């Protein structure tokens, strides 16, 4: 697979997880399919690419902005990074749905937050924490 096809596959495949979270959040298999299906497959592809194609990764590759920038100079490295984003943002989305149900947050409320998690990861998470805090008057998990 080329980096472009990996990128395209990831973008299309991750939508399955997001659709499950939005359309069928209460289905008993949604969390399992998202966590152990979609995210796991993205993680396996990610791990394979990291092992196979990351190149000259060294322990100090994260010590400076210039070092991190140097990691993302190939299409393969960008595809790897993109899979990382897709998997972790979906993981956070699954967490938001799970926790929202636990604290009794209305479906329409967390459904409005999920697109922000999908597009802007941490911003969506901050939105969720603030809404949950208002609902429960607590930052506790």
TrEMBL record:
The keyword Membrane belongs to this UniProt entry's keyword annotation: yes
Domain of life (superkingdom): Bacteria
Annotated protein name in UniProt: DUF4281 domain-containing protein
Residue stretches spanning the membrane: 6-24, 33-51, 71-97, 109-131
Organism name: Arcticibacterium luteifluviistationis
Pfam short name (any one): ABA4-like
Keywords for this protein: Membrane, Transmembrane, Transmembrane helix
Keyword presence, Membrane: yes
């Amino acid at each position: 697979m080329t980096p472009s096809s990996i990128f395209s596959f990831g973008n299309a495949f991750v939508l399955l997880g997001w659709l499950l979270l939005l359309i069928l959040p209460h289905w008993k298999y949604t969390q399992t399919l998202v966590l152990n299906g979609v995210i796991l497959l993205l993680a396996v592809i990610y791990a394979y690419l990291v092992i196979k194609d990351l190149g000259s990764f060294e322990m100090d590759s994260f010590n400076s902005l210039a070092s991190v920038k140097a990691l993302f100079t190939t299409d393969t490295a960008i595809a790897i990074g993109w899979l990382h984003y897709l998997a972790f943002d979906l993981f956070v989305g699954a967490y938001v749905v799970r926790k929202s149900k636990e604290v009794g947050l209305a479906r329409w409320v967390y459904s409005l937050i999920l697109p922000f998690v999908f597009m802007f990861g941490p911003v969506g998470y901050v939105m969720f924490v603030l809404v949950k805090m208002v609902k429960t008057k607590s930052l506790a998990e």
